[in-house]
Structure formats: structure tokens, C-alpha cells
Prior knowledge:
By secondary structure, the protein is an alpha/beta fold. It contains 14 helices and 14 strands.
Amino acid sequence: xxxxxxxxxxxxxxxxxxxxxxxxxxxxxxxxxxxxxxxxxxxxxxxxxxxxxxxxxxxxxxxxxxxxxxxxxxxxxxxxxxxxxxxxxxxxxxxxxxxxxxxxxxxxxxxxxxxxxxxxxxxxxxxxxxxxxxxxxxxxxxxxxxxxxxxxxxxxxxxxxxxxxxxxxxxxxxxxxxxxxxxxxxxxxxxxxxxxxxxxxxxxxxxxxxxxxxxxxxxxxxxxxxxxxxxxxxxxxxxxxxxxxxxxxxxxxxxxxxxxxxxxxxxxxxxxxxxxxxxxxxxxxxxxxxxxxxxxxxxxxxxxxxxxxxxxxxxxxxxxxxxxxxxxxxxxxxxxxxxxxxxxxxxxxxxxxxxxxxxxxxxxxxxxxxxxxxxxxxxxxxxxxxxxxxxxxxxx
Length: 396
């Protein structure tokens, strides 16, 4: 299943309002949604004819082939010429005809981002970052579902990849570690970039943060407040970042000669609903934790809501920390202490690495896989405080 989504916006150019649009479109071999296609009308100064590449070439006093090379970011164009062409493009308000460009090229000018769970802050932020970069490069973005069955059915994965006809693919986790899907992309000679992979990192470009170190730092902060009875709401077992965050949590406890009681370790799935169920378990026994680390902010928000419903005050009775610095972390009270990882930037850089990979392949350049490890930051907010027994000494 592919997802089709179109958004439109108006902007002012000179004295004429213009319509711009960005869209995802369906490219599935089994259509289930109507394909949304949008072409903006770009008029010349007389307002009666669409601006063409010939107009741009005439305005910039260059050949049409030069304009084409500039628009496609091809090398061996003098910077002065490139600047002149781009200035003419902006002055005339020229937008390439995507359909015509695709027909005249061996490229589809479409890249894909595969997903397993569409309704999540993590994927949505990656998507926004990727879309921004695609617009800058003149590409369209296709989002395609790949569920668990494709993690072990090579033929199905291969057929799906072939029929999408993409120039490249971005693989978020946990899909980035689906071995058969990666093999299918390699078999089709399709460049790909992985987001937060945990296996065979040297085989392809990737982008990530150090999830283990980030969780370690956050847990150390909770310990510094005086908490000794900690609980954790883990993410999905199949997500390697969830495993790394749990390892970072354990690293900090072991360093302080502490451990987490088995009943204070519960498994969620990164959803708000799972956070509710996990909190009910954690707060339903006598040796309840004084602080809970939830592996993402959606589950942390559920911890706060459930704790309040059960009669616990946050952070007076219970400190709560999350991960991601998602919008929900600031939309609940108290605001959630969390780890800031710029998911939108992850998506944008992953897309940038993919375009570099595509261009290198076009030029026959065999380079080592590119990668980028982004910074993270612990954000201290009102959801965490010293536990009751230590609150007086902590304030001193």
C-alpha cells in the first residue's frame, strides 16, 4: 500500500500570487488509493503562456542544454553560468515539468521512504525532513508500507521494489535491518540509506544518533536527583534503538551499583496506549519506582496521565522522563524531561546522503559509504525532581 497526500499553498511572487504544491503520490503495483498529481501553472509576464526551458535559456543567454544541466545539478558548468541560469529561473518563475523531465530521462526522479508504522511521531518527523530535501533537489517522495512479512519473504520484497521504479530508497528502523529487503534493493541495483541501523553498518550510508549514550546520560541525571528505584518502559523488541536505550539505562545503573527490579521493566511498543498499560503495571505493585524512563515521549506522556489518574502527582510522587523531544513533550503538564534528537534533521540528512549516493553511482564513483552521527541533548523540564525522601537535602 502506498499513501497519496497532496498539500497546496499560495505565495507571493512580485505582484502576482502563485500556487505551489508538494505531494506524495501512489506508485503501488496494487492501487488502493487515487493517485494525486498536481502541476502548478507558471505564467510569463503577459500571463498567457507557460514559462518553458526555452524562455529560461533566452533570458540567461545560454543553450537549452546548459539550462538542463544546471537544473539537474550536473558537473562541469561554470559557476558564473550556473548563477545566471538560476537567477533567470527565479526571475521568470520557471518550474520544471516533472512529467516531461521523467519521459526524457532514465530516472524516475522519485525516491522512496519505507515504513512499518505510519502513525508515529518518529516517522512523521523523518518524513518532513526528507520532503524538504526532496523539494530542494526537484524529486518526489513515495512512502510505501513494508510490514513484517517482507522481512522474510525475499520474492515478495523483490517484486515490490522492482515495480516501484525508484531512483533510491530511505530505510528507517526497524526496516533498515530487514535483510531480505536490503538484498532485494542490492539485486535491483537501487541505492539506499539506512536510519539507525544496527547490523552491517559498513555496507551502505547511514545516519543515526548514539541512542545508548543518550539514554545513559538521561538515566545518570535521574540518579543524580537521588532516585534509586527506577523503572523503564521499553520500546518494541524488534527496534534496535529500543535495545540500545535499554542498554544505556542499564549501564548507568550498573555504574552506580544499582539494578532494576524485573517487575520494574515493562515492554511497550512506542504507542500512547501501550504506555498506559505499562504504567498500570509499574504502579500496581508495592515496590513501585520513584522515577520512570519511557523510551519515547508518547509513552512518557501516557505515564504522566496514568499516574495522575491513579492518584500520583508528577513529579512530587513520581519523576518521568522520555526520549525524542517530540511536540507532545511540551503539550502535556508537567512538560517532559527528555532527550532531544532532531528527527527532522535525521530525515533531511538521510535524503541528502541518498542523493550523493545516486550522483556518485551516475558518475561511476565508487566511494566508501557515507554516514553521519548527529548530536543529542538532555532537556531538563518539570516532570522530574528529587524523590520525596531526598527532596529537602536536594534543595539545599
